[in-house]
Fold:
Amino acid sequence: MKAAEIDKIVLAYSGGLDTSIIIPWLKENYSNAEIVGVCVNVGQDEDWDNMEDKAKASGASKLYIIDAREEFCNDYLYPMLRAGAVYEGKYLLGTSIARPLQAKHIAEIAIKEDAQAVAHGCTGKGNDQVRFELSFKALAPHLKVIAPWRMWDIHSREEAIDYAKAHNIPLGNISKKNIYSRDWNTWHMSHEGGDLEDPWNRPQEHMYQLSKSPTDAPDRETAVTLEFEHSFPVALNGKKMSFQEILDELNKIGAENGVGRSDMVETRTVGMKSRGVYETPGGTILYAAVKELETITLDGDTMSMKNTLALKYSELVYVGKWFTTVKDSIDEFMAKATEFVSGTVKLVLYKGNVIVAGRTSPYSLYLEDLASFGATSYNHKDATGFINLYGLSTGVSAMAHRKLEESTGQVNEMKKTAATYHDK
Structure:
């Protein structure tokens, strides 16, 4: 599709520097096309009252503001929490999980507005360009995707600010001194750039926006009790609440206790290593609680398979493959696997730590009579036959290998001793 054939573009609008200057750039390069902005509220802190005026001042014809916080919690965060997805062992996927939801609403508005294209402000280095565009391909493949950062001659924040000033774009509190790139939603806040680009540098305390330093957290434990049904959080400290309400409260409690900070060097989808610092207070608490509840409600085989698929799930979320058959298929497994992950978990928060204090479930597989070191119904003699059968293949392999080694004269003294002992 040629630029002259595009007369309406729907833009993923955040009100930040990049998406503000994209509006006049699109109009300049696409025959003064109409620009419709879409801002999806997933819990980020924005000047919502003035957002529409700002978008129009930048040249947009209108702005849709969509409150998707409840949908975000129930339809995106919950499946991810249920799966136990953690990218590269540390990242709770706060930015990653928001992008398919935002892309879905942007695609829906583009179809409603009969637009020919969608646009975003992601750079050519980042993960978000992949997440947005894979979602667009899945939901509205007929739309042309415009990614100005891969096309224009602006190469830095400073140049972007100069462009904004030249086009009379209101900057608000945006300045060249704001060195960090941040993303914020109800699940987390991320920090990148500036002094963080050297992985040897420790994050400066003033960089953190959500959580207290563990050293400044209270010198006392804070108890938290969470109730779940099928891994879905339903109550906090005995009070029935929505997922969103529970998460909001846990964010406050966790932040006060210095919980949820993570500093990691991760592998971006485009291949490079990138350093990010994340604050996920409520999410960290929820992950710990669900994981603990699984220890008494999942059998070993199910837990092993679930942990294996959790790694794949985290990769799918990270790269933006949310609207795919493989992700949906894993969801089906997770729904079945967590059918009995219901119950209550007690946690204690203390200076950045999440400490398990107890867990109970009506579906618990933990039988005290069997597990006790005292007198139980467990017959210790049964273990002899079990071990003989369980180790049968190991013993057979050892004997077969010994014969081969003896025939070639390569058997070592340790194996000779072991074989002799086995023969006895």
About this structure: The longest helix spans residues 300-319.
